[in-house]
Write a structure and sequence with these properties.
The complex is a heterotrimer of chains A (281), B (864) and C (196). Chain B is α/β, with parallel strands linked by helices. Helix content of chain B is 28%, strand content 17%. In chain B, strands 5-4-25-24-23-6-7 form a seven-stranded mixed β-sheet, covered by helices on one side. In chain B, helix 5 runs parallel beside helix 14 and helix 11 crosses helix 12. The longest helix of chain C is centred in the N-terminal third of the chain and has 10 residues. Classes of the chains: A mainly alpha (281), B alpha/beta (864), C alpha+beta (196). Chains in contact: A-B, A-C, B-C.
């Protein structure tokens, strides 16, 4: 691969979405959305508010920061039935609106919204944690992203972090349940990462080049950041706790949650950085 | 950002001509409200028919380059050296002229006009004519430097064969082209923009291209067969192709050789000299019909012998062709493979295809004229001139054309413009080659002005030291390359000269265009005073005492850029004659003058307007009422008006050309092909080389100077370059340089668009190395390396591993890049200057016949 | 009716005239090479060839960029040209990511070739190159096609390697010379064809 010389025809990593704002926008969306979802389902009120804020503020700020013309952000809504980004923006807008009303009662000390409001908000959050994967998968030029695994990978990764934060915040009984869910999600995530790499290695030339990039040039963030820190280490911490083998102290769970948050970031980091265009000829 | 587009007040297209290289293509420039927004080719011109190259398109970036220095300046720090701030202070033009005038007068008073040297040439070719007229003619200063080493030897040999000192394949009809050291028609050379489309047409038609080049440049990229050759061995390949044609395939044009060359002349086997008739000096030939020797033009000759050995009056003679055939016997493909690394089978294949493509015996009718048709051609250019035995090598290559009978006939090797019958209304400008009577040989029409020059007469009468620094008197076959001047300036006593004190550099960068830059710095320091006229403060400007800014080509007038010689008018059937204009499109920044305005004014101030006008009358052949009056001062545009009216009549003066831009008229078939319309011949056996050798030998003995005479021989040969042999195993690689279609010299790198392209291509500024070579040396792409020559000189750069390069070579673009001047920030530090590795003043590297300069220097690669 | 370009690689000498003409015509800022010449080596010494492939927007029939554009700034026009409305573009760069041909460029700053101070040429031309939006080749739609002129790269091509016109007019040439599209397997159906 020869990415130094723009006029040489070769495999070439994408550069436009390889910087911090895009990675952080995706990460906040996943973490906030995951936490919101888990909390809404399990009735963790603090988690609902924190998740809502992380998603709306975190993702919102970096989304704007990533735009060339942030002042025109409303135009992003123009093509919801054609463009994944536009669709996602609508979902995001609706989530802000419905989520706000869903969360509003919490401020007055009562429980969150229920019924249709709850279901609809949860669906929107679910879309939000997966749609990054969908719009990457829609990028024709980058074969490494043309995989149905990406939305699932993105969603599971968000839920992992969500349950992780949840378990660090939750009271005892819920903590136990969340630890168990978290452990399972980490195992699923590990399996999905393995499957994705396997897909890359066995797919088109462009995808294979991405696998090479992932396992060679990006081996630090991949093995250290994603697999080691983001999956295996928290799995060890959470798994032992979930099996009742350790006390599952809040400090350790906090550490696990922090590691899983890193995992969310590194997953996006390596996937974006391994986005490779195939040569035109 | 300005949101609202202002209302346009002015929107015009102005015809002029390009100066992003020396080809001077006709262009039209789009000016909107005083700003140049686009440059296009002029669709009426045969020079591109409306198309222009990347350089030409990028002219806008030169015009508006904020790094251009547009006010005159003088140095305040006497210490000279690259990177040492000269302490430039801006001065008025009045002061600039005064300094220049007084320094010129001082230098002339001290040692005479020979104390003045000027340096200029190809950057602005028409502009150069000012310096030639002013220094060379008005001041009668004989010494000059030309930065270009590309054309050495080739112009001389092309003059001998085609009368035009520039010749090329007849692209319209040629079907098989072998290019040696040339990318003509794909990336470079005179009339590139005119040739490149015709060559593309030819490829689509099926014309085959064989490219002999160690590097996969644009030429080999388009070639059907790439022959990656060991540098400096092209002559061995050419002579081996000749061997296959003569000895294995027996393909050569016997009739052509007999009729159009001196190949049948009888040669004394003892002396190698042609056997001539006493008194008339006419060569003898052998008549087979009555087995007797007769003078070559004897009407009674029955059957002329091309081959064989004959005894006349007890002495043995062989024909010139026989001498050649025996001479090339040593160049078997197997031997040539050892020298060139090109497989013998490939040599045989190319020879066979070339010989067959020539269709010997066929004829063609063009515009009602029947002529021989030889659609095959071997072309040779600057790559060959970068080696020591340049004359012999070019000759070895071009003699292939003579062998197959393709010189001066359709489909073959023809002069750019051998004959001009002139503009129909005026009959001007016109030229036609003359004939060397005693042997009926075609004479040259010269390179720069269409003068009738005779190499033969020069050898007969003109050999002898003229006191010039270039020692032209010792190089009768050297058309215009004054490169021995470097040697004599650095060693004046050894050559019986006096060092020159004054140098004027116009649009040049002398420190970069020859050998090692530190040695060249010493050369520049050898002058007491240097004035430089340029657009930028380049590396050489660190040695200037006075800097004179010139207007950009879009801001100035120049002499008619499509010169009336054979340099610009690369033609052929269907390519009309075209004469254009260069005129200002926008006002000159800070009113910097054009070079023409400048010299015209300088001549006035020095009180030599009469001599200046006379020189211009000579160069532009202005006659009668169109001639400039000696005692009258004309503005530069008025001079141009005279030139145009002289050529195209009273109604087509400067104003007409300013409005119309150019004039074209059809080229006639008799202006394109010399044979058979001119019943003359070209040399095959170069007897005059031996005549020259004798005379030069005598003269150098008289002068008591060291001189090499070995290359004066009557038949071409391959001889190894000084660094052909590996003297030390460690120094095993030969760095070579090449150019492409978006680059010319160091100043072009400073163009922001060109630089962007160069930076984006892996080959642009890096050192290419063959993948196998890199592997063997444990090197990879991106490695920073030092190239060290055995003489201790070093350059450094970054490697890029490639396949398209001979394994014994390293390749870089340009060869003289890597600008050091702080005043050229875009170009600074870009590229690798491999000519920095070459000893600049070592006569062992100079061809003593043509002054080609050997730039083959072995290096070792050291990881930095 | 749909515009189409055919590039004859037998003619092309990889000289970059098109690259520079495009720079001049469209005043593209540093790093933006709407029209460019890409290089590649194929094979192993000595059986190797360097090739030059002139590239520009492929004006695909089914453009990947249009599909991802959230603001509707990028559209496929009836005449086949894919164009960008720079007043609508929000600079999300999804189109750059989506394009398999590397035809799109984002202007992340407002610098010129000599830094902050723009040349008179840049002052004029950069009015059409605002910061924060994406730019690409549109066959010189406004400045040339609208005036009945062919695109700048076609006009300047020194070997006349480029043919420009309606698809129907060029079909015969494409078929007879065995023209091909770049990466046809992606299904974008480019309107730029190459002749071997």
């Amino acid at each position: 691969m020869n990415d130094q010389y723009s006029l040489y025809i070769d495999y070439r990593p994408q550069k436009e979405w390889s910087k911090a704002p895009m990675m952080l926008e995706m990460s906040f969306g996943a973490i906030g959305g995951g936490l919101f979802l888990v909390s809404a389902l399990l009735g963790l009120n603090t988690g609902i508010i924190l998740g809502f804020l992380l998603l709306v503020v975190g993702k919102g700020v970096f989304l704007l920061a990533d735009l060339g013309k942030p002042e025109r952000f409303l135009k992003v809504l123009a093509k919801p039935f054609k463009s994944w980004i536009s669709f996602g923006a609508w979902v995001f807008l609706l989530f802000i609106l419905f989520g706000f009303f869903y969360c509003l009662p919490l401020l007055t000390g009562s429980g969150p919204g229920s019924g249709f409001l709850k279901i609809f908000t949860i669906i929107l959050a679910l879309i939000l944690i997966t749609y990054d994967g969908f719009f990457l998968a829609a990028s024709k030029g980058i074969e490494a992203w043309n995989s149905g695994l990406l939305p699932i990978l993105y969603g599971i990764s968000g839920l992992t972090a969500g349950t992780g934060i949840g378990m660090a915040m939750a009271a005892n009984e819920q903590a136990q349940l969340l630890q168990q869910i978290n452990a399972v999600l980490l195992i699923v995530l590990a399996f999905l990462v393995f499957s994705y790499v396997n897909f890359l290695r066995k797919s088109t030339l462009g995808a294979r080049e991405a696998a090479k990039l992932l396992l060679e040039d990006l081996k630090g963030p991949f093995w250290g950041g994603l697999v080691g820190a983001g999956i295996l280490l928290p799995l060890l911490l959470v798994g032992l706790a979930a099996l009742g083998l350790t006390a599952g102290s809040s400090a350790l769970m906090l550490l696990a949650a922090a590691l899983e948050i890193c995992g969310v970031f590194f997953l996006r980091f390596v996937i974006l950085r391994a986005g490779v265009y195939s040569p035109v000829i | 950002m300005t949101a609202v587009k202002e209302k346009v007040k002015e929107d015009v297209w102005i015809p002029t001509s390009c100066n992003m290289c020396f080809n001077s293509c006709n262009i039209r420039v789009h000016r909107v409200d005083g700003v140049v927004v686009k440059i296009e080719g002029d669709p009426r011109s045969p020079l591109g028919e409306g198309r222009i190259c990347g350089k030409g398109n990028a002219g806008i970036m030169q015009l508006y380059d904020p790094n251009r220095k547009t006010k005159p300046m003088k140095r305040t720090n006497p210490e000279k050296g690259i990177g040492i701030d000269p302490g430039w202070v801006e001065i008025s033009w009045e002061e600039a002229y005064n300094i220049l005038q007084s320094e010129l007068e001082k230098a002339i008073a001290k040692k005479g006009p020979k104390n003045i040297c000027h340096h200029c040439f190809i950057t602005n070719f028409p502009g150069t004519f000012n310096a030639i007229a002013f220094f060379g003619m008005a001041l009668e200063a004989p010494n000059f430097i030309i930065p270009d080493i590309c054309g050495a030897a080739i112009h001389g040999i092309e003059g001998l064969l085609t009368s035009g000192c520039n010749a090329a394949p007849d692209y319209n009809y040629c079907k098989y082209i072998i290019q040696f050291g040339s990318q003509a028609g794909t990336a470079t050379r005179h009339g590139y923009n005119m040739t490149v489309k015709r060559f593309a047409d030819a490829r689509v038609r099926g014309t085959k291209l064989v490219s002999v080049d160690p590097h996969m440049s644009a030429g080999p990229e388009k070639a059907d067969i790439w022959l990656p050759i060991r540098p400096g061995t092209d002559a061995a390949l050419a002579l081996s192709i000749a061997y296959v044609l003569v000895h294995e395939l027996k393909i050569y044009d016997r009739e052509y050789l007999k009729k159009y060359t001196n190949a049948a002349s009888l040669v004394d086997v003892e002396t190698g000299r042609i056997f001539r008739e006493e008194g008339t000096n006419k060569p003898y030939v052998w008549d087979l019909s009555d087995s007797s020797a007769k003078v070559f033009d004897d009407p009674g000759i029955g059957e002329l012998a091309l081959e064989g050995e004959y005894v006349v009056n007890g002495k043995t003679y062989k024909t010139g062709f026989q001498m050649y055939a025996e001479h090339i016997k040593k160049y078997t493909p197997e031997e040539a493979e050892k020298i060139t690394t090109i497989p013998a089978a490939k040599i045989r294949q190319v020879a066979k295809e070339f010989g067959e493509a020539a269709s010997i015996g066929s004829t063609i009718v063009i515009d009602g004229v029947e002529m021989p048709y030889r659609p095959a051609c071997a072309d040779s250019f600057s790559g060959i001139s970068r080696h020591k035995h340049g004359f012999l090598s070019h000759w070895a290559i071009l003699s292939l054309n003579t062998l197959i009978g393709s010189v001066n006939v359709p489909g073959g090797f023809i002069a750019y413009a051998p004959i001009s019958l002139g503009f129909p209304e005026t009959g001007r400008p016109a030229w036609k080659p003359t004939i060397w009577e005693e042997e009926n040989l075609l004479e040259s029409c010269g390179l720069n002005f269409t003068e009738n020059l005779s190499t033969y007469r020069h050898i007969r009468e003109g050999i002898g030291d003229k006191g010039d620094m270039a020692l032209f008197g010792l190089q009768p076959l050297n058309e215009l390359d004054p490169h021995f001047l470097y040697i004599t300036q650095m060693n004046p006593e050894k050559y019986g000269r006096e060092k020159m004190d004054f140098l004027f550099v116009y649009a040049g960068n002398p420190i970069k265009n020859w050998g090692n830059h530190n040695e060249m710095a010493e050369f520049l320091k050898s002058f007491d005073f240097i004035a430089g006229m340029d657009l930028y403060l380049n590396d050489s400007s660190y040695f200037y005492d006075l800097y004179l800014p010139e207007a950009s080509y879009l801001e100035r007038y120049d002499f008619p850029p499509t010169l009336y010689n054979n340099h610009r008018t690369n033609g052929g059937i269907g390519v009309p004659w075209c004469w254009g204009i260069r005129q200002p499109v926008v006002e000159s920044r800070d009113n910097a003058p054009g070079v023409g305005d400048f010299f015209n004014e300088l001549a006035r101030r020095m009180g030599i307007t009469d001599k200046w006008n006379k020189a211009l009358n000579f160069i532009w052949k202005m006659e009668g009422e169109n001639a400039l009056k000696p005692d009258k001062f004309y503005t530069f545009p008025e001079i141009l008006d005279h030139i145009y009216k002289n050529w195209f009549g009273p109604n087509r003066g400067l104003e007409w050309f300013k409005e119309n831009g150019l004039i074209t008229y059809p080229r006639k078939v008799e202006e394109v092909y010399l044979f058979p319309q001119m019943q003359t011949r070209i040399p095959f056996y170069f007897d005059f080389m031996l005549e020259a050798k004798e005379k030069v030998a005598k003269e150098v003995e008289r002068m008591g100077i060291p001189w090499e005479l070995d290359d004066y021989q009557p038949l071409p040969d391959w001889k190894p370059c000084p660094d052909y042999e590996i003297h030390d195993e460690e120094y095993d690689l030969l760095p070579i340089y090449y150019t492409n279609a978006v680059n010319v010299d160091t100043w072009m790198l400073h163009n922001a668009w060109i630089n962007e392209i160069n930076e984006s291509e892996p080959y642009g500024y890096n050192i290419e190395i063959n993948s196998e070579t890199a592997k063997a040396k444990g090197l990879k792409s991106g490695d920073k390396v030092i190239l060290r020559a055995a003489n201790g000189y070093e350059v450094s750069g970054r490697l890029i591993v490639v396949e398209g390069l001979h394994p014994e070579c390293l390749a870089v673009g340009g060869g003289c890049w890597d600008i050091k001047s702080d005043y050229m920030p875009t170009a600074k530090g870009k590229g690798v200057s491999v000519n920095n590795l070459i000893e600049a003043f070592n006569t062992k590297r100079l061809c003593h016949v043509s002054s080609t300069f050997d730039q083959c220097v072995r290096v070792k690669v050291i990881k930095a | 009716m749909s515009y189409c370009m055919v590039i004859d690689l037998k003619r092309c000498v990889g000289c970059h005239a098109c690259s520079a003409a495009c720079k001049a015509e469209n005043g593209t800022p540093p790093g933006n090479t709407r029209s460019k010449v890409m290089k590649k080596e194929i094979g192993k010494y000595p059986e190797v060839r360097r090739i030059s492939i002139p590239m520009l927007c492929m004006q695909c029939e089914d453009p990947a960029c249009v599909a991802v554009c959230p603001s509707g700034a990028t559209v496929k026009r009836e005449d086949g040209i894919v164009s960008i409305d720079k007043e609508k573009c929000i600079g999300c760069r999804a189109c750059i990511i989506a394009c398999p041909y590397g035809a799109r460029y984002f202007r992340g700053n407002d610098l010129g070739y000599f830094g902050k101070d723009l040349t008179p040429f840049e002052e004029i031309k950069y009015r059409n190159q605002p910061k924060g939006v994406v730019d690409k080749c549109d066959f010189c739609l406004e400045n040339r096609l609208a005036q009945g002129l062919e695109p700048a790269c076609v006009q300047t091509c020194v070997t006349k390697a480029r043919y420009f016109g309606q698809k129907e007019e060029l079909t015969e040439l494409i078929v007879s010379r065995k023209g091909y599209q770049l990466r046809p397997e992606l299904g974008t159906n480019p309107s730029v064809y190459y002749l071997p």
